[in-house]
Amino acid sequence: MDIMLICRDALENSVISNIAMAMEAKKNGGNPGIVFTQEALAALAGGSFRWSPLMENRDTKIKVSKNATAMGLQIASEKDKRWIDIYRLLKSAKDAGISLMACPLWSQLLQVEGKLPPEISTVDSQTLFKEMNQAKTIIGGF
């Protein structure tokens, strides 16, 4: 992994940004990965995502779904194309070869074992630190 993005907020717009940027990096020859921690990890383990206040209105969500689909992101719900399906986007990222990992510290603190989507890998601290040491760029913070 040469680029590591750290996604800690349970904001759908934040998750979309992290995955979309990782997918762009992959298209441009990078080897990106995303570490999900704190709120994002809790939401992925069965909690709920929310939107930033200025983006939570219905029209904005529909616009984002429509435009992201037009950009080639598999984000729209298969049931209703106006709405976003974060789990479909996760699958698309994993299928594109992007490493999706759960932060080992927060995995233990939140006891998420067995609750995460299959696209998210659980790693130990040693593995995470090895990936961090190899990354040329780390974006985000714990």
In short:
This protein is 44% helix and 13% strand.
Structural summary, described in words:
The protein has a five-stranded parallel sheet with strand order 4-3-2-1-5. The model has no long low-confidence stretch (mean pLDDT 94). It contains six helices and five strands. By secondary structure, the protein is an alpha/beta fold. The protein is globular, with a radius of gyration of 15 Å. Strand 1, helix 1 and strand 2 form a beta-alpha-beta unit.
SSE blueprint:
Blueprint: E1 3-7, H1 12-27, E2 32-36, H2 38-44, H3 58-70, H4 86-95, E3 99-102, H5 104-110, E4 121-122, H6 125-134, E5 137-139
Parallel strand pairs: 1-2, 1-5, 2-3, 3-4
Helix pairs in contact: 1-4
User: Could you give the order of the helices and strands?
Assistant: EHEHHHEHEHE
Q: Total helix count?
A: 6
Oligomerization status of the protein chains: single chain
Structural class: alpha/beta
**Cα-atom Rg, whole angstroms?**
15 Å
As a percent range, the share of helical residues equals 40-55%
Q: What global shape is seen?
A: globular
Proportion of residues in β-strands: 5-15%
**Order of strands, widest sheet:** 4-3-2-1-5
Poorly predicted spans: none
Compute the average pLDDT: 94
